[in-house]
């Protein structure tokens, strides 16, 4: 099945008559009208509109280059080429002539027809839908339209606002067997719950106040055709239930009606939200989501296909110039660079409106960078927000179950489900940092002494001691033999100067154990120091764990756990 106009034809040059003859027969068998064009002729001279140009050979000649320029600039049609050059040579020629496809000699006619059919039908589909673009995302979307159009299954079109979802829906309808029937579009978000149900399914006389007569809904009016439900994520849950019945049973009840109404309508739905998230927060029926998501087409935002912006600008310029009867000389390279660099939060709709305003405000001259609005030239000056926010409407409390935006509620529930123990993570990180610091810096021996009633923290106990003496930590009077021996030069608790030696008192000898001290030596870990402190505290209170816990400033359960952890039960 092809979508060619009656007057359209495939043009093949006669640079190589043998190749031209074989390709002509192949395209005729595929149902295409074919015209041969000799070097030096013009594509506009024939009675048929050119749809595709194939250069059969001699790609480096001036006549081939002239035909390619005319096809690209005047007729705006794709160009194929056949050459005898090697792979690298063919690639260079393809870039020089801007060929869509290039085939080595001799070409396979079936392959040429296949690629030509795809390209011509895609361009024809672009004319039907109004969607312009050559990037991979747009090509994939148009391929999906061609695949989905002949069948009757439900289609879900996703994408940000302004990306062209309704154009895709109209294209599916135009290429489907239902194209001779009605295509009706309704914006679900624009109607209240009561009015939406009446618009879709109709109502009987007296069904509600103001229903002075019976009225058919859009599903009845679209009998045999297609109905497009835009912003389906905003549909109330009660209406979703009735829509699900229409999709599954092909019947519904009018508002206030008693008899079922059977219909044959294809449904195409669209949304700029993530329906899976709405399902998770209870804003959208799960069974309806699966019923709608039979066939899916996603349209990428304009910021993800910047290569298409020049093509879109050119198409919108032609359209606006013809509609307003205003001559327009185009856009300068500097201005086009600004347009390509901009993120376009409003997508194609925003670009179309800007181009139309430029055509109206600058007739007869080229658009320069200074003519572009400042918010597009300097997008970062618009405000403090780094990215556009989803402006989904807030629902009043009690309606549809929540007053929060579905996206925010989904994020909140996801965070609550993680259940991470942040405090434990902080302790492990602090322990790693302390151990790494103490080992890497090779601190001098650390004497811990003093009262255990107020246990010190590490940042409080590591301090500079005059005259190169080791740092001392006061932890209280400890039992004799509860700790390792003090290093040389460390005084006793009653000494003057907060740990300095008394005048004339001899320093402690190496290896001599001092009463009431827990000594830190390089290489010890924090666990070892903590174990020694706990051992000293237990010795001081003669094994009374409750008193030891009070002196250490920790709970009894924590002390029991640490005694077991460090093997201090004996």
SS element count, helices = 21
The biggest beta sheet reads: 5 strands, parallel
| Percent range for β-strand residues | 5-15%
Corresponding CATH superfamily of the largest domain? P-loop containing nucleotide triphosphate hydrolases
- Count of beta strands: 15
> Which CATH architecture of the largest domain would you pick?
3-Layer(aba) Sandwich
Averaged pLDDT: 76
CATH class of the largest domain: Alpha Beta
Biggest sheet: strand arrangement: 2-1-3-4-5
Shape descriptor: extended
Describe the protein's architecture and organization.
41% of the residues lie in helices and 11% in strands. It is built from 21 helices and 15 strands. Strands 2-1-3-4-5 form a five-stranded parallel sheet, with helices on both faces. A five-stranded parallel sheet has the order 7-8-11-6-12. Helix 1 crosses helix 4, helix 12 packs across helix 14 and helix 19 packs across helix 20. The radius of gyration is 40 Å and the shape is extended. The N terminus is likely disordered.
Question: What's this model, at a glance?
Answer:
This protein has helices at residues 17-29, 62-74, 87-97, 109-129, 136-148, 165-174, 193-201, 218-221, 237-249, 275-280, 286-292, 309-324, 333-341, 347-361, 374-377, 406-418, 422-441, 458-461, 526-540, 545-552, 556-566, and strands at residues 8-13, 34-37, 49-55, 79-83, 101-104, 155-158, 183-187, 226-230, 251-252, 261-262, 266-271, 295-298, 446-448, 472-473, 518-520.
